[in-house]
Amino acid sequence: MSEGELAAMNLGDILANADGQDAKALLRTVRNGEAHTGRIVAAKRNGATVLIDGSLTCVKDTDGSPMRIVLIGRDVTASEESLAAARAEAERTQQKQGEVVDALRVALNRLSSGDLMAAIGTPFDGTYEDLRKDYNKAVENLARAMTEIVESSERIHNEARDISSTAEGLSRRTESTAATLEETAAALDELTASVKDAASGASEA
Question: Which site from 4, 17, 27, 33 is most exposed, i.e. has the minimal number of CB atoms within 10 Å?
Fold first, then answer.
């Protein structure tokens, strides 16, 4: 509401209430000599309302009778609307942040419990979507790394089992060879004894 609009209108026509007060009660208070300072909700002729930050003061004549009520203020409707919009946006942002934090908390709890498929499926709003994608990529890389570790462990286990089996077979062959050598040595001992007996008999002959 411009100054011209305010000046062209009767105070009783534009005044709706101030700080929750009834218009008539407010005017009565001001006429009694008590000035009002604060926010005043004023009604325009087209039915819209504006918020005025200012004061209402009663001007009296020499006899102390009210002559007129003066409204001095400025229209703060736009700034209040901007402030209200900023507050609403802050609340929406805080809500989005809360949803993101809750989703990450649930996913991290699943991941800490050993669930390598703990990806976040529901898209985040705005720039938070990049955070969800980065998290899912990290989980995917972790799952791939763990799979490779498990596969490597299985290969190592199989190779160790093969080595153990080969060593066991070699040990058995070594034991068999040793037994054969013992039998051969015993046979040689018997042969040697037979040769000695034969030589002794030949000498006597």
Answer: 4
pLDDT score recorded for residue 18: 45
pTM for the full predicted model: 0.50
CA-nearest of 141, 94, 138, 99 to 122 is 99
Query: How is residue 33 annotated by DSSP?
Result: T
Residues whose CB is less than 8 angstroms from the CB of residue 69 and which lie 6 or more positions away in sequence, other chains included: 11, 27, 30, 31, 56, 57, 58, 59
Helix 128-204 to helix 77-112 angle, to the nearest 10 degrees? Answer: 10
End-to-end CA distance of the chain: 155
Under 8 Å CB-to-CB from 135, ≥6 apart: which residues?
A: 104, 107, 119, 120
The 3-state DSSP class for residue 27 equals helix
For residue 56, the cross-strand partners are 36, 71
Segments of the chain with pLDDT less than 70: 1-23, 43-47, 199, 201-205
Q: In the 8-state DSSP scheme, what is residue 58? A: E
Q: Which two tokens stand for residue 72?
A: 């001095």
Label residues 74-100 b or e (16+ Cβ within 10 Å = b): ebbbeeeeeeeeeeeeeeeeeeeeeeb
